[in-house]
Specification:
Distance between the termini: 22 Å
Radius of gyration: 18 Å
Helix content: 25-40%
CATH architecture: 3-Layer(aba) Sandwich
Bound molecules: alpha-D-ribofuranose
Low-confidence stretches: none
CATH topology: UDP-N-acetylmuramoyl-L-alanine:D-glutamate ligase
Number of helices: 11
CATH superfamily: Ribokinase
CATH class: Alpha Beta
Structural class: alpha/beta
Mean pLDDT: 96
Order of helices and strands: EEEHEHEEEHHEHEHEHHEEEHHH
Shape: globular
Largest sheet: 6 strands, parallel
Number of domains: 1
Strand order of the largest sheet: 5-4-1-8-9-10
């Protein structure tokens, strides 16, 4: 039987307010959208949920606001079996929220208001240190302060814990401060913002990965949406293709990739196999509406993998 990895997510939790629309209003104009969906989101929380649904033991270090959404978010973690003992409510700030717009092709545009996520500090990581030290892997994103991310990458290295960083949403960073990590996993637009190089196809992605590797990062995975992902290390690069799916909402697909990849890798699968499976897991998440609610549990995923993953 596969090892059950213990994954810690130090990251964000948001409430997603998703509007499905074919058009966007001009300044001063009011138009009708087609459909609305309210759900739990946030890149950190989504990655934690994906890892949990894939079978990992998961705990979350996060901050939520003193509003209706705060306690509901904590309850959601608990209902899913995610350890939320390091998720605290902060007085006087809102929870993180994300108004999201999805067009008829399933493509999304996201606006994040960080709220309480922005109050997660290095001292909070220290407070959770005993639990973090028991993790096999720490997963981070960019919806919390960058100083907290840098601090946690260093903490992971110091304690010999695998560290995966998803630089989303993209921000200009001090690459030296994160070069200690094990996996750097941007999507095309994040890779583009961070390196200043265009990423329109697999060849572009290779050049971009080369630049990231030369700046000292050990392993890079650039997720390429319907084109799969590029796995890159100093020994070489490989394009790992996606699986065919009928996408209706791509929101959270990158998070599905990361949470599932962390789990598959933690179970002891070779890296390339973990990436292939994560490609399918992410693809499946785009076939229904919402973020966390579109993620498959392990038995549904294993069924799809048995049907599609061979070869
Ligand atoms: O990656 C998708 C997520 O980005 C959404 O859940 C939203 O909350 C933003 O964090």
């Amino acid at each position: 039987m596969a090892k059950r990895p213990r994954i810690a997510v130090v990251g964000s939790a948001n409430i997603d307010l998703t509007t499905f629309t074919a058009q966007f209003p001009k300044p001063g104009e009011t138009i009708f959208g087609q459909k609305f969906d309210l759900g739990f989101g946030g890149k950190g929380a989504n990655q934690a949920v994906a890892a949990k649904l894939c079978g990992a033991e998961v705990f979350m270090v996060a901050r939520v606001g003193s509003d209706l959404f705060g306690p509901a978010t904590i309850k959601n973690f608990q209902n899913l079996g995610i350890d939320a003992s390091h998720v605290r409510q902060v007085e006087g700030v809102s929870s993180g929220v994300a108004p999201i717009f999805v067009d008829p092709s399933g493509q999304n545009r996201i606006l994040v208001v960080k709220g309480a996520n922005d109050t997660l500090k290095a001292a909070d990581v220290d407070e959770a240190a005993d639990d973090l030290k028991r993790a096999d892997c720490i997963v981070l994103q960019f919806e919390i302060p960058l100083e907290t991310v840098y601090y946690t990458v260093h903490f992971a290295r110091k304690n010999g814990i695998r560290c995966i960083l998803n630089p989303a949403p993209a921000q200009l960073i001090d690459v030296k401060a994160i070069s200690d990590l094990d996996y750097f996993v941007p999507n095309e637009s994040e890779a583009e913002t961070i390196t200043g190089m265009p990423v329109r196809n697999v060849e572009d992605a290779k050049k971009c990965a080369e630049k990231l590797l030369s700046s000292g990062i050990g392993r890079v995975i650039i997720t390429l949406g319907a084109n799969g992902s590029l796995l890159a290390g100093r020994e070489g690069m490989e394009h790992v293709p996606a699986f065919n799916v009928k996408a209706v909402d791509s929101t959270g697909a990158g998070d599905a990739f990361i949470g599932s990849f962390a789990t598959f890798l933690g179970e002891g699968l070779p890296e390339r196999d973990a990436v292939r499976r994560a490609n399918l897991y992410a693809g499946l998440s785009t076939t229904s509406v919402g973020t966390q609610k579109s993620f498959y549990d392990r038995s549904r995923f294993d069924g799809e993998w048995a049907a599609k993953g061979r070869g």
